[in-house]
Specification:
Elements (H helix, E strand, L loop, with lengths): L2 E5 L28 H10 L4 E5 L2 H4 L4 H10 L3 E4 L1 E2 L11 H9 L6 E5 L11 H14 L2 E5 L5 H10 L4 E3 L27 E6 H9 L3 H12 L4 E4 L9 H11 L5 H15 L7
Parallel strand pairs: 1-2, 2-3, 4-5, 5-6, 6-7, 7-8, 8-9
Helix pairs in contact: 4-5, 5-6, 7-8, 7-9
C-alpha cells in the first residue's frame, strides 16, 4: 500500500474559496487540474490508496475552507491538516486553544499545521504562543505538523521534546545537506531521541539528495539515526513537481535499499499510524 503523507489541493472556484497567493515556491495553483477531484484521479492512476491533504498556505493562506470541504467529500480516503496562523496579530495567545479545538471537532482533521517559512514569520520566537499551540494540539489529540527551517529548530526544541503528542516535521525541516547527506552538526539530529517526532521525507528533500547521487544513502542515514518507524514518504504534489509518477519513482529509488518491512513502514504504515484519525489506518 502507498499512503502519501503530504499532498496539496486548491479550489477551482476562487470566487467561492478565496486565493491569497503569498509568493511561496512555484505558483502550482495556477495550473489546471489541481483540485481534490483531480488529485483523487491521480492517486488512482498510481495506485496510491490514501493521502493526507495539507493546507496549501501558498494558495489559500489560512482559510482552510476548501481543504476541509475536500476532505469531507472524500473521507476516509483522505484526511486534513489545516493551518493556524500564529503570526496573526488578531489571534491572542488565549484564543489559540479555541481555534485549534474548533478544528479538532471536525472528524476529517488529523493534525494542525504551524507554518513558519513565510518571510515575515516570527511566531517561533514567542514561547508563550508556541506553548499555547502545542498544549492545544495535545489536548485535542492532533498531530503537531511543523513547517519550518532547520535554523528555527533550536527555538522550538524544548517545546518539541516536551510535547506528549505526535510531532511531524514537514520536509525534515529543510536541512542543509552535504554531499546529499545530513552533516554531523545538522540541527535535526538534536531530535534523534525524541521518539514521538516523525520526519516527512518529501520529494523536495529527495531531489536535493538525488542531485548529489545520494537519495538512497540519505534515506538509509535517516533510518539508521531515527529508526524505520519515524520516517514518512510525502510527495509534496503538486508543489514540488507536476508529474506524480516521477515523484513516486523518485521515492521508490530512494527506498531501494530498505528491507521489505522498512519499505512498507516508509510508504504507508508509519503515516497510517501517525495520521490515523479518523480511519486512515
Amino acid at each position: 500500500m502507498l499512503l502519501d503523507s503530504h499532498t496539496h489541493v486548491v479550489s477551482p472556484e476562487p470566487d467561492r474559496f478565496a486565493r491569497t497567493a503569498r509568493g511561496l515556491g512555484r505558483e502550482w495553483w495556477t495550473e489546471p487540474g489541481r483540485d481534490v477531484e483531480a488529485l483523487i484521479r491521480t492517486l488512482d492512476d498510481h495506485r496510491v490508496e490514501r493521502a493526507v491533504l495539507v493546507q496549501a498556505v501558498g494558495a489559500h493562506g489560512y482559510d482552510n475552507s476548501y481543504l476541509l470541504d475536500a476532505a469531507r467529500r472524500f473521507a476516509p480516503r483522505v484526511v486534513a491538516v489545516p493551518a493556524v496562523d500564529l503570526d496573526d496579530p488578531r489571534l491572542a495567545d488565549g484564543d489559540i486553544a479555541t481555534v485549534i479545538g474548533d478544528l479538532a471537532r471536525d472528524p476529517v482533521v488529523t493534525g494542525i499545521r504551524l507554518f513558519a517559512v513565510s518571510p515575515a514569520s516570527r511566531w517561533t520566537a514567542r514561547p508563550a504562543r508556541v506553548r499555547a499551540a502545542f498544549d492545544a494540539a495535545g489536548a485535542a489529540r492532533l498531530v503537531m505538523v511543523l513547517t519550518l527551517f532547520e535554523s528555527q529548530l533550536a527555538a522550538l526544541a524544548g517545546a518539541v521534546v516536551d510535547h506528549e503528542g505526535p510531532v511531524a516535521l514537514d520536509h525534515c525541516a529543510f536541512p542543509g545537506l552535504r554531499a546529499g547527506l545530513l552533516p554531523d552538526d545538522a540541527p535535526l539530529l538534536a531530535l534523534e531521541r525524541a521518539a514521538h517526532v516523525t520526519l516527512k521525507v518529501s520529494s523536495h528533500l529527495l531531489l536535493d539528495a538525488a542531485a548529489a547521487g545520494a537519495s538512497g544513502a540519505l534515506v538509509g542515514q535517516l533510518v539508521a539515526r531515527f529508526g524505520p518507524d519515524r520516517i514518512l514518504w510525502g510527495s509534496d504534489y503538486p508543489q514540488t513537481g507536476a508529474d506524480y509518477g516521477a515523484l513516486v519513482a523518485l521515492a521508490e529509488r530512494a527506498a531501494g535499499g530498505l528491507s521489505g518491512a522498512d519499505r512498507e513502514a516508509f510508504f504507508a504504515a508509519n503515516a497510517a499510524r501517525v495520521f490515523g484519525r479518523p480511519g486512515l489506518s
